[in-house]
């Protein structure tokens, strides 16, 4: 068999094998540059099979045009795909040069000029494009694997090999030239495969590192729990320690910790990690117990991960600390209730007081008449009850949203010191100790009467909450942004269910309380643009009023 035919058949076979490999890859991954490479290898294989018949064909011109189109197409597609692969635009000069060469070679064929007239420019242009493509792979392909080096140098060597085509094509070395071309293209194909998988692996590693960095720097807890074949924590972000106090390693060591930290009262409302688990359309809010046993509010989004058979395999979720938002909602709810009560006070408070004043006056007149002397105890009881009702209305009016205040620059320490003897007298009656810890504070716009009422309410509540012999501490501090009045008692810890209702009008735990004392304190603080904070624990409770300095 002719050596040329064997070389051409081997060359075409090798190129066809590479074409089918790239066709499979494109069908599998649908990458555009893989599609361009597939088209290029298909045209290369077709041209390789037809090339030796060009000069022996009776229809020389049509055959030449066909081979010219396949050569141009294979060159441009492989160059275009490579440019996309390395992230660069294809130089337009390549397209213009190839099209100009096509026109020139067509003119040469039509006018039957010597073949070397168009073979030499073709070899020079094709060789330079291959060399430039190899250099571009070396410079711009974002990977350092062996596939990059193999592909780049195979392109460069093949480009140099294109230059010897006019010399060896008419000689007996032509079969070896075809085999060398096939071998170099095979190396290019294999190198591209290696470079593609190396780049894919690098991209996945970078993407994983990017997402891991995002997860580890997120303020929310991001977690993944494996449910089959056994329950285990596969990943939990470092934010877990900031929010719950538990380190990620503790969750890995104890997979049940994520359930154990949920407040016992909220566990029934959470979705169970079983086959009924569904994605949460709305975040589920519940309470968590931190490592120090303090309580926080969180919201959770959860997504079930199922295997091919539809069984629940894992659960992924995000947990966000919403304690500050919950406290704000509670504060807004409390202020809203105060506003409602204040509006009621403004509307009906004075109307109720007027008839009570009339009734009290008539009772006083009637109690002085001789015929009613034997009803004296009854009159005194009625007058006491009217006075009590009047005092309740006075407190009720203190909640009025539109109440006028006389806020003048005053010093908080001066107000405290002027009220201290009265607080001291109340403490002596109940066998308590009162201690002042006053730091220098700047003057603030204050209504002295309201601040005295606020301080007296906090002090009396603290005295009533403590056992005899305990100490009530009144403290003032200041920083750049605020002035703080703190009243600390050594009474028992306030239960969470009561903490949620503190400041709501008419809510009280005292037998004879009205439920307006703390509500009035919140209303006064609101009118002074201040905020009431409560810190409670086994050693006592501190009520702090934070006044803004500007």
CATH class of the largest domain: Mainly Alpha
Look up the CATH topology of the largest domain: Rhopdopsin 7-helix transmembrane proteins
Distance between the termini: 101 Å
Q: What's the shape?
A: rod-shaped
Helix content: 55-70%
Q: Which structural class matches the secondary elements?
A: alpha+beta
What string gives the helices and strands in order?
HHHHHHHHEEHHHEEEHHEHEEHEEHHEE
Number of domains: 4
How many strands, what sense, and barrel or not for the largest sheet? 5 strands, antiparallel
How is this structure best described in words?
With 550 residues, the protein is α+β, with helices and mostly antiparallel strands. The protein folds into four domains: 3-211, Rhopdopsin 7-helix transmembrane proteins; 221-321, 2-Layer Sandwich (Beta-Lactamase); 331-398; 408-548, 2-Layer Sandwich (Heat Shock Protein 90). It contains 17 helices and twelve strands. The longest helix has 45 residues, at 323-367. The chain is rod-shaped and about 150 Å long. The model has no long low-confidence stretch (mean pLDDT 77). InterPro entries: HATPase_C_sf (IPR036890), HATPase_dom (IPR003594), His_kinase_dom (IPR005467), HisK_dim/P_dom (IPR003661), HisK_dim/P_sf (IPR036097), PAC (IPR001610), PAS (IPR000014), PAS-assoc_C (IPR000700).
